[in-house]
Amino acid sequence: MGPATEQVKPRVLVIVPAYNEAESIGDALDSLAAHAPWADVVVVDDASRDATAAVARARGCAVVQLPCNLGVGGAMQTGYLYAWENGYDVAVQFDGDGQHRALLIEPLVEEVVSGRADVALGSRLLDGVRFRFHPLRFIGCWLLSGLVSAITRQRITDPTSGFRAVSRGVTGFFRQHYPQSYLGDTAEALVWAARQKFRIIEIPVRMRQRTGGESAVDSIKGIWRTGCIMLAVLMDCLEPKFPDEPEVTA
Question: Is the pLDDT assigned to residue 3 strictly greater than 70?
Answer without folding.
Answer: no
